[in-house]
Amino acid sequence: MKHFLKLIFFLLFSLQPILAQQNIITLHLDKSKDTISKHIYGHFAEHLGRGIYDGFYVGKDSEIPNINGIRTDIVEALKELDIPVLRWPGGCFAEQYQWKDGIGPVDQRPLVVNTFWGGVTEDNSFGTHEFLELCELLDTEPYIAVNIASGTVKDAYQWIEYVTSNTDSEITRLRKKNGREQPWDVKFWGIGNENWGCGGSMDADYYTDVFKRFSTYCNAEYKIASGGVFDDLEWTRTFMSEIKEVPNFIDIAHGMSYHYYTIANNWEVKGSSTDFEESEWFSSMYNTLKMEANLKDHIAIMDEYDPDNNIALIADEWGTWYDVEPGTNPGFLYQQNTMRDALVAAIGLNIFNNNSRRIKMANIAQTVNVLQAMILTKGSQMVKTPTFYVFKMYKIHQDAIQIPSEISSLNYSINEDEIPSLSVSASRDKNGVIHITVANLNPKDDLETMIDIKGLLDIKGLEGEILTAKTMNAYNDFGKAEKVQASEFKNYEIKEAAININIPSKSVVLLTLNGN
Ligand code: AHR
User: Fold this and answer.
1) 85: closest CA among 48, 134, 124, 118?
2) Does the beta carbon of 90 lie inside 6 Å of ligand 1?
3) pTM higher than 0.85
4) Residue 372 CA, ligand 1 centroid: distance in Å
5) CA count, 13 A, side-chain hemisphere, 490
6) Percent of the chain having pLDDT more than 70?
7) Which residue from 124, 129, 211 is spatially nearest to 162, judged by alpha carbons?
8) How far apart are CA 483 and CA 472, in angstroms?
9) DSSP-derived 3-state class of residue 272
């Protein structure tokens, strides 16, 4: 027995350095070149469920504190995230939205049916002026999607004229009459949304022609085309090859959209956002990681037709999609948000950071009360979700120089399937500060990891922050103390230009360091 125990101890201790070696993150500071566009940290707000009404917008007469109907507590919370861009009014809703219904005296705006989301009444009280005021309050850039499926080219270009033009015209006079003298500065305009599906069931060839027609008349600085279904590479090929034939293509196409949702099971039974097994945790991680290979396939096609990187890939819808919370309207897409969502957010943002040469914007779906939200509300109450805290930790990457990374880690496996246990991205900001964001996708095992920074001689100062929780499905609930929030993290040691770190299971860690 004594010998047996000795053997066990010997094996444990002699194996430790080998185990530690199994998780290595290598950062190539010396190979940094691409800027992580701040717009990768963008958001999306659709007229869907309680996203706008009873979300961002409660109306001027609400007892909930507001500025012209826009909830003050939501604005204050979101300002912590430095949101760089907000997409509106949809989504599918964009393709039924008639912008002229949403301007002028509120009591004269028409009631319409929101056919896409729950068949509810849309009273148009939140329209162009209200959205642009929201953006001003958030200090964020607006991104407006125009209707190309049930609207005309004239509707589209007049909306742009109404918002951005300084020239005297019937349309700009109308804007002034409605209380806005100066035009707004709106750079980003979407030319349709999911035009393969809810945006008109078009094929790629037909859409590309429609895009060319609308975009030619839309006098806007940055125009974003609809992409195909996430795995429809032929759509990307058709769009890219045909747009390249337009002599001034650089003036009419600046981005192509990409949508990818993380589904734990399948579209029929997506599963609960809070009541799930480890296998569903695993598939959420697995399916989010899969997005990178798919993005690289689209990027390879874009590189083929646009080697100068003129047209950006704009991931303007992404995030988790579960079954709605029991008892809520199925058309409202209201779901809770747990530690699992925090990990999905971390993986997604790492992927976008690491592919920032071509990906210039991403907009998580959706900001308030819909899908993978930052904020959930119930009456006057509000919670910040685990996803909120990931965006808060990651905002330091905005406009920083991306540092290429490699991971060699133990796999996390379930049944036959396996994925790397770690996801990472890193950047160096304009002050030379290095930020590393790393997530441990394994919900059970901590990971001893070495981070080796090539191109750095030594580390001068290091600080850590962590987001984790006791359980996979921990979430922040109304009226209760927050179960998931970021805190200080110190479980590391510096070895010249390397860091040895013990990354707790199911956690997201931010390391901030200075060095030579
Ligand atoms: O985000 C919800 C919906 O998902 C959007 O309206 C649509 O574009 C996508 O299918």
Assistant:
1) 134
2) yes
3) yes
4) 12
5) 1
6) 96
7) 129
8) 11
9) coil
